[in-house]
Design brief:
CATH architecture of the largest domain: Alpha-Beta Barrel
CATH class of the largest domain: Alpha Beta
Shape: globular
Number of domains: 2
């Protein structure tokens, strides 16, 4: 009887939760079919959600991956007739058929038992899966560089009628082409530094609010962008749910086990790319409120259902585990944790209904929490607040590091999201997979036996643990410090002495514009104040895309140095922030 009662009430709870979570579900393919009251939705339509996606950048001469994802076809089955794309750029006009290359075997028509009228295609594919996707690759001329627009189009039959959708079929959106920059250059980097996205959600995050993309797709897109790794950090309350049942708990952990296998498979396919297994765990902060913790390097599932719909109708939404308890589990596996979006602005309903809270300084400084991921998708007030918190912790003598991630739930080329439940969807280009990214220093990163190069989970975790990281959405800036004895400290490390030589290097590429400024900050730990050590205006340097300089600095007290750099192309500004080097 209790389970029946819960089932009847779950729709009401789900509706409240939908309103509660939207402030945090910023970057995802929106699920449009859920309705709280039958008929009360301006965005629901009797058709599966269809989304095309592609990376926002790629290299000249490289194949460009593109995917088509169809969600909820088990509710609204279709007959797939054709998928194609037109590609436009300066002096470029191509047409590419994704359908023929993907389905080269003869597949006979099913048409739900009948053949629609005016059907020209000799065959089709019946799709009635809860989730379906395909991926193909587009080849451009080897010498093409610059922006392109891809106009993907799908033709299908729904309830006997032929239909066409371009880019996506989500109501109220532009359906504008996918825009990709084909770069002459790789992402700006230095020897031993490797880019990745530290916070990304896979298709295991699928509920009444959203759906996402498979690991296979993200790995292919990540390589195209120029990343060397990314972390899959699905929500703990999604990973223990049965497929297509958002309120129940799966004791067999089917999703979690499937995800682990998919990550293992993806890693077996590349010698120079790593998919890092992670989890975004809901746990209790110092006040017993639900916060999210990024966990890396733990082979077992960690439960966290406190801010999900699985706790029943009592509205207590008590965390399964405290932050301290989760940190102890992670330490037992020698894993790594970072505070996820520590300054997230939870909505009133999120605080009231889901018992969501925010990270306190006392939470951030617990043993086993290595730092903060405050660059979470696009920058804004939450970025600014998280940045200020980090500086405050540094000046309090806390060695806490920073990493960055998109927090994308899919969304490789643009952000699609629900602005008002049941009413309006919006889209933007300000945050996509791999745009805010973490660059890690892995000295032994590429020293394996496969073709002389292997980056692995151990290297990445160790770099995260040691804070050997830089966060950026454009240029890359690094520095090191050498003392009187000739010892050298890299980012994240500590060095002693009184007289030092500081070497800084900055790189940008045409895509991110010319280097405009570099600022070195000194944090005085005795005075608890941070000042500018020096500021360099680099707009008029001879080489606009690379800079190297050496500087003498002195220190008679404990302090740290950290570096920031910016570049600019047209009206767009890009920013890079390093972790500190400490002097004692």
């Amino acid at each position: 009887m209790g389970s029946i009662l819960w089932s009847e009430k779950s729709w009401f709870i789900s509706g409240l939760i939908l309103f509660s979570v939207l402030s945090r579900k910023a970057f995802s393919y929106p699920e449009i079919h859920f309705v709280l009251i039958k008929g009360f939705s301006l965005i629901s339509k009797r058709c599966p959600e269809i989304v095309f996606d592609a990376p926002w950048r790629s290299r000249r001469g490289e194949l460009i991956p593109i995917t088509c994802i169809i969600n909820d076809a088990h509710k609204y089955p279709i007959e797939l007739l054709d998928i194609k794309a037109q590609i436009f750029g300066e002096g470029l006009e191509l047409e590419h058929s994704l359908f023929d290359r993907t389905f080269d075997e003869a597949i006979y028509p099913t048409y739900l038992g009948r053949k629609p009228k005016k059907l020209n295609a000799p065959w089709s594919i019946h799709i009635s899966d809860s989730y379906w996707y395909m991926m193909d690759y587009i080849q451009l001329p080897d010498d093409f560089v610059g922006p392109i627009a891809i106009h993907p189009q799908i033709e299908f039959i729904l309830r006997g009628k032929r239909r066409i959708a371009s880019t996506d079929n989500l109501p109220g959106l532009s359906h504008a082409p996918l825009r990709i920059y084909i770069s002459e250059d790789p992402l700006p980097t230095f020897d031993g530094w490797y880019y990745g996205d530290a916070h990304w959600h896979s298709d295991k995050t699928k509920d009444q609010v959203e759906f996402a993309a498979p690991v296979e797709v993200a790995a292919s897109f990540g390589k195209a962008i120029g990343l060397s790794w990314f972390a899959v950090t699905d929500h703990s309350y999604d990973l223990d749910a049965p497929v297509d049942d958002y309120f129940a708990i799966d004791p067999d952990l089917t999703k979690w086990k499937s995800l682990c296998e998919e990550i293992k498979l993806a890693n077996s396919q590349y010698d120079d790319f790593v998919v890092l297994r992670g989890e975004e765990v809901s746990c209790g902060n110092s006040k017993g409120r639900n916060v999210h913790l990024l966990v890396y390097g733990v082979p077992e599932f960690i439960p966290g259902r406190g801010d999900s719909a699985k706790t029943g109708f009592d509205f207590k939404f008590k965390p399964d585990l405290s932050l301290q308890e989760v940190l102890e589990i992670v330490q037992n596996y020698n894993g790594v944790t970072y505070a996820a979006h520590p300054n997230a602005d939870n909505s009133f309903l999120g605080r009231l209904i889901l018992n969501r809270g925010t990270w306190l300084d006392s939470d951030c400084t617990m043993e086993g929490c290595y730092g903060l991921q405050f660059w979470n998708g696009c920058s804004g007030q939450r970025f600014t607040d998280g940045y200020k918190r980090w500086l405050r912790l540094l000046l309090d003598g806390q060695k806490r590091y920073i990493i960055a991630g998109s927090d994308a739930h899919g969304d490789f080329n643009r952000t699609r999201k629900m602005k008002f439940p049941f009413v309006k969807l919006v889209e933007s280009m300000d945050s996509s997979f791999g745009k805010p990214r973490t660059c890690l220093y892995c000295e032994d990163g590429f020293t394996g036996v496969n073709h002389g190069s292997t980056l692995n989970e151990r290297n990445i975790l160790e770099a995260m643990r040691r804070g050997q990281a830089v966060i950026t959405d454009g240029p890359l800036a690094i520095f090191n410090i050498k003392n009187e004895q000739g010892q050298i400290a890299n980012i994240g490390e500590t060095i002693s002495g009184e007289r030092f030589e500081l070497t800084l290097q900055i790189k940008s590429i045409e895509e991110f514009g010319k280097i405009s400024k570099a600022v070195l900050y000194r944090g005085d730990l005795s005075q608890k104040i941070e000042n500018i050590e020096f500021e360099l205006d680099l707009k008029n340097t001879e080489d606009h895309y690379a800079y190297l300089s050496k500087h003498s600095v002195k220190s008679n007290s404990d302090c740290y140095f950290r570096l920031e750099a910016t570049s600019q192309r047209d009206e767009y500004k890009y920013r890079c922030i390093t972790n500190p080097i400490w002097l004692c």
